[in-house]
Amino acid sequence: MGSKREIRNFCIVAHIDHGKSTLADRLLEITGTVDPRNAKNQILDDMDLERERGITIKARAVSMFWEKEGRKYLLNLIDTPGHVDFAYEVQKSLQACEGAILLVDAAQGVEAQTVANAHLADKAGLKIIPVLNKCDLPHARPEEVLLEIEEALCLPAEEAFQVSAKTGAGVEKLLQALVDLVPPPGGRDEAPLQALIFDAVYDEFRGVIVYLRLAQGVLHRGEKILMTGAGTVYEVLEAGRFTPRMSPVESLGAGEVGYMIANIKRLSDVRIGDTVVNAKGERAPALPGYRPPHSMVFCGLYPVNPGDFENLRAALEKLSLNDSSFTFEPESSEALGFGFRGGFLGLLHMDIVQERLERESGLDLVQTAPTVRYVLKLRNGTEKIVQSPADVPDGSLIQEWREPVVRASLILPDDYVGPVMKLCVERRGHYVKTEYLTSRRVLLVFDLPLAEIIFDFFDKLKSITRGYGTMDYEFKGYEPSDLVKLRILVGGNEVDALSVIVHRDQAPRRGRQIIKKLQKEIPRHLFQVSLQAAVGGKILARENIRPLAKNVTAKCYGGDITRKRKLLEKQKEGKRRMRQVGRVEIPQKAFLAVLGGGEED
Fold first, then answer.
1. Fewer beta carbons under 10 A from the terminal one: N or C of the chain?
2. Domains of the chain, first to last
3. What is the pTM of this model?
């Protein structure tokens, strides 16, 4: 590429389902990057799950060449996810860009994630171009939405572009604006190499493919490079751009976005946010990089067939190669045997990992109830981090519980403010503020315990607001709370996989819910099965599952009553003996019923 003045690095950020991937498709078509005959919808979403669910999970990079008025531009686009669980993917992408298209649905208006992404782009110092998408819809309301953009995002309404990513209307004008408004990247080709690793994926044939943004210098094929954080030296076997397939080039210059293959065997050898410099000669300083993503939600993953444990380990290792934000470690449970404890960014991330595991490895899995990470202050002055109810020590040793709290921003029509505030208060939320974005749209801010929103909070919000409410949240910190471990006992034995951590006030209600669900799901045995919910040694709820009754006197047609009594006593003695040695079989669907954790039917 000739000059830095002809390079533009930008990303598309928006709320989920506002048309980012569709706009990317139109840009690829207009620039001639993709042949219209081979085009398909959501070109950059190449994972089956992404195409089926219609969402972007991984950020994608693509280079486009565009000629206008005798000048040839290289446009590097990074398509980002919109869901709150994948916000870390957005943050990574922003550091590789100078500009951002902030996409807003002309019918839906400004949503929670729109506000969050606009703040992220502003914090990263990017030039933000507001764009109204879906202007061709009959129920689009561009004038009102422009007002929302001005009120909520403090961006001038006259700077916004109106397009339809579906039909392509206004997209070429947007391309021209990108070239005019987004500044070209800095950095000189003559300077020592300095490149930021903003992503990496694992390919089983070629090893790790590293996604780079060159801040300065030139990356040549065949040269030796050093990763400053890891301290490892590699030889560049291939460098190239995404167009959108990988296209090798001899070298990448300052300001460019591309990839590098250097015979790296494991994804753990590459740190996202690390800096690539020359192995020989003058070395540039390391770039600031990123904070690594921290798991927020945890759950146990167990194979239905105990013999599949090693297969599950292999499947998890393979999946973690392509998803650096997913973590796992072995754990065991008396009820479920050997399995793993997985760490995820959120509930959608957990759902997608489980679905990928079942699809790609053909395993049947049982997932335990999702939990969050708690910090326990013990009486001996030490702190203990707990990710699972099984790790909780005896209550007499705990001085204080601390739970993770998030600041949730909820955007909804003003008709539903009362019911949504009631929902937040029920979930132990603390009110922060209310802002009116327009006369009809309200921003509510609450501090909520993360454990209260990971189950069904989002479903409840959608149901109360008839689908119009949206939510975004950011981690605030750990705060003290009156929590307890709710133990579930089946037949007098504690089932660790069913234990949950709850607020003391909610323990009796939650205990009754779990016991009622188990009573429906556990089949009757030949002996009575007791179900109990307890905190410490105190029983809060109890139900019994009646035994199966066999009519042992059916074959007695009259005769002496003592004969019938003898048979009944024999049956009673047998049941008593069975209660002592009998084992209660808990089916998988009983675990799954409890995992829902929702309200009583």
1. C
2. 4-181 (3.40.50.300), 194-278 (2.40.30.10), 297-369 (3.30.70.870), 375-481 (3.30.70.240), 484-595 (3.30.70.2570)
3. 0.66
